[in-house]
Amino acid sequence: MVGWHQDDTHTDLGKCHFQIDTQGETVQRETATFLDSHPLNVFDQRIDDFVYILTALTWENTIPEVPQ
Questions:
Q1: Beta strands 25-32 and 16-22, pairing class
Q2: Dihedral sign of CA atoms 35, 47, 44, 42 in order
Q3: 1: which strand partners?
Q4: pTM
Q5: What does the H/E/C string look like for 13-64?
Q6: Reduced to 3 states, what is the DSSP secondary structure of residue 10?
Q7: What CA–CA distance (Å, rounded) separates 51 from 17?
Q8: How far apart are CA 14 and CA 6, in angstroms?
Q9: Each residue of 45-68: pLDDT tens digit?
Q10: Angle at Cα 33 formed by Cα 28 and Cα 39, nearest 5°?
């Protein structure tokens, strides 16, 4: 799973963060800018970021990673 989300367990990362999960565990978390509370507005604003993430994604020993 690759995406941006909010939760109450990672307040050190701010109101929103980017996260990569694989094989049942989180392998990367990064601070991300909070854009909007409405899911469709967020989608419209993040779709270009998502394309960049997919092209920048690398794999090291079966673990995905995106440069910071």
A1: antiparallel
A2: negative
A3: none
A4: 0.80
A5: HCCEEEEEEECCEEEEEEEECCCCCCHHHHHHHHHHHHHHHHHHCEEECCEE
A6: coil
A7: 17
A8: 9
A9: 899 889 999 999 999 989 999 987
A10: 95
